[in-house]
């Protein structure tokens, strides 16, 4: 009988191979090298492992991680003073921006600004929820971006056709697990270039979609392919968690130590073999008398005087001296706060340790913070403020409440930030005044930097006040400024007369005046007769 050849089959491994070992479309198999010229890429048994599941920035933050970060950031914002400072303090530093029309139609600029202030300055008119006006909503944008990572503003209209908005927080943007993941990414619909096309709003009743043309998405895209913004606490969630637990444990230890405020001590005796006689405030001290073990003296009686607890020979009452928190622990917590502050982009001295440094270092750190604020303000102007201004003006001109602008570029607008942070207001203010007198800066820039307002209204008000004072003095019989200054006790000022005002025929000098006689010799001594 002929035997069939014996064959041996090896069971195929179901374990997936690593990317480095898999072949690529006809290419050779890639094998990892033992060492790299760049030591940062080498593995070491003395260091932990790095887990980077993907380098695709559009997929590095999955829905689960996104919502976990948002939930934890909100918890710390509700329970940590430093977290609230990171959000509210930085949002306050960014502040709000005030629009200023820049069209060639100056009369229309005034009308447009007055119309915008009347409507966008009212929370009841511009916000469908009736909570924020145009300026306070900017602070809400900054707070939600720092805390949640992003916020969506839907552009809508009131019943009379006026511009209005409605805000949606980060947790309202999303999609269910049954939604096509190739179309929606964590509530955002994007095209092949990464541009936002629409947003899905979820609620208890279901969901509805908003086109990107009808909404303003506000978030910080640190990476080019990032579909949504990430909370500012992403780098320091664990730090905040550790700080919260350390402070909780230290407080608990202090409270327990205060409850065990007094204890008996016998020199040379081990604590484990000695009877437990710890006592706290308000409790009874054991009268350790061998002859009368049942008699007791309360601690209140001891403090009132006249009675002392009996002790064994060699025993004494001591007070618990708690050394918590240790200075090294507090220094470690400060180091964690420093790391968190720089993660937000500002120095801890500006954000938390206010007043710890001064002089040149303080000015440098403040200048660095001002640069950070200016970048945030520029993004706020480009992303939200300019677009809402154009939308508001277009709605008002369409409704007929604002006439058409004669300048075809009616959308041109600038924005004035709030007063810049400074550590020496008097010195910076004097420098601005000197630059303004020298003509090196315009009046518009001077008012923008010093007062955060348009230069025209205060300038017109100043001229009206001068005219009012002049007319009031004339009505009351004052003939010159020197007379007013003399009454006020001020030094008289020499005021040059206007040549056009003194060259009239009525004020011409008489011929008999020797000082003005044209025939008088120039070489004649005026002091001689």
Describe the model.
By secondary structure, the protein is of the alpha+beta class. It has helices spanning 63-79, 81-94, 106-120, 123-126, 134-147, 237-259, 299-304, 327-344, 348-351, 360-399, 425-437, 443-451, 456-475, 481-488, 499-502, and strands at 98-101, 150-157, 163-168, 184-185, 188-190, 196-203, 206-211, 215-219, 262-265, 284-286, 296-298, 316-319, 413-416. Helix 1 (63-79) packs across helix 2 and helix 2 packs across helix 5. The longest helix is centred in the last third of the chain and has 40 residues, at 360-399. The radius of gyration is 39 Å and the shape is extended.
Mean of residue pLDDT values: 78
Termini Cα gap: 165 Å
Strand order of the largest sheet: 4-5-6-7
Structural class: alpha+beta
- Percentage of residues in strands: 5-15%
Tell me about the largest β-sheet. Answer: 4 strands, antiparallel
CA radius of gyration: 39 Å
Shape: extended
Q: Would you count the extended β strands for me? A: 13
Order of helices and strands: HHEHHHEEEEEEEHEEEHEHHHEHHHHH
Could you estimate the helical fraction of the residues in percent? Answer: 25-40%
Number of helical stretches of at least 4 residues: 15
Q: Which regions are unreliable across 5 or more consecutive residues at pLDDT < 50?
A: 4-27, 271-293, 497-514, 518-529
């Amino acid at each position: 009988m002929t035997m069939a050849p014996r064959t041996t089959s090896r069971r195929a491994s179901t374990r997936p191979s690593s990317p480095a070992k898999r072949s690529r479309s006809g290419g050779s198999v890639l094998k990892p090298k033992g060492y790299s010229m760049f030591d940062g890429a080498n593995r070491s048994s003395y260091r932990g492992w790095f887990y980077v599941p993907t380098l695709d920035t559009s997929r590095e933050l999955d829905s689960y991680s996104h919502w976990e970060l948002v939930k934890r950031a909100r918890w710390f914002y509700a329970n940590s003073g430093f977290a609230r400072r990171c959000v509210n303090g930085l949002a306050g530093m960014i502040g709000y921006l005030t629009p200023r029309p820049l069209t060639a139609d100056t009369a229309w600029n005034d009308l447009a600004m007055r119309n915008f202030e009347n409507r966008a300055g009212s929370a009841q008119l511009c916000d469908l929820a009736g909570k924020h006006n145009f300026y306070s909503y900017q602070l809400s944008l900054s707070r939600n971006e720092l805390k949640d990572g992003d916020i969506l503003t839907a552009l809508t209209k009131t019943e009379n056709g006026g511009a209005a908005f409605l805000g949606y927080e980060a947790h309202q943007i999303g999609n269910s697990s049954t939604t096509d993941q190739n179309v929606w990414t964590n509530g955002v619909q994007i095209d092949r270039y990464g541009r936002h096309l629409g947003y899905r709003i979820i609620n208890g009743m279901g969901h509805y979609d908003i086109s990107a043309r009808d909404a303003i998405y506000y978030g910080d895209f640190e990476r080019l392919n990032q579909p949504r913004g990430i909370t500012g606490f992403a780098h320091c969630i664990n730090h905040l968690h550790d700080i919260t637990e350390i402070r909780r444990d230290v407080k608990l230890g202090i409270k327990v130590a205060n409850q065990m405020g007094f204890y008996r001590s016998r020199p040379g005796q081990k604590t484990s073999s000695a009877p437990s006689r710890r006592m706290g405030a308000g409790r009874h001290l054991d009268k350790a008398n061998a002859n009368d073990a049942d008699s007791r003296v309360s601690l209140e009686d001891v403090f009132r005087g006249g009675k002392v607890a009996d002790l064994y020979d060699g025993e004494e009452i001591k007070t618990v001296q708690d050394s918590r928190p240790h200075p090294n622990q507090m220094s470690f917590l400060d180091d964690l706060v420093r790391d968190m502050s720089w993660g937000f982009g500002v120095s801890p001295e500006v954000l938390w340790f206010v007043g710890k440094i001064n002089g040149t270092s303080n000015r440098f750190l403040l200048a660095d913070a001002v640069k950070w604020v200016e970048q945030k303000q520029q993004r706020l102007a480009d992303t939200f403020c300019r677009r809402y201004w154009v939308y508001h003006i277009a709605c008002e001109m369409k409704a007929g409440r604002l006439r058409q602008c004669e300048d075809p570029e009616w959308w041109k607008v600038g924005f004035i930030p709030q007063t810049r942070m400074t550590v020496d207001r008097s010195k910076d203010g004097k420098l601005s005044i000197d630059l303004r007198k020298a003509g090196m800066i315009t009046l518009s820039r001077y008012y923008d930097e010093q007062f955060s307002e348009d230069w025209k209204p205060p300038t017109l008000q100043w001229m009206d006040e001068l005219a009012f004072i002049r007319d009031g003095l004339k009505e009351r019989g004052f003939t010159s400024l020197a007379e007013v200054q003399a009454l006020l006790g001020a030094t008289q000022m020499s005021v040059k007369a206007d040549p056009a005002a003194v060259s009239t025929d009525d004020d011409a000098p008489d011929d008999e005046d020797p000082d003005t006689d044209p025939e008088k010799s120039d070489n004649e001594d005026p002091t001689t007769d």
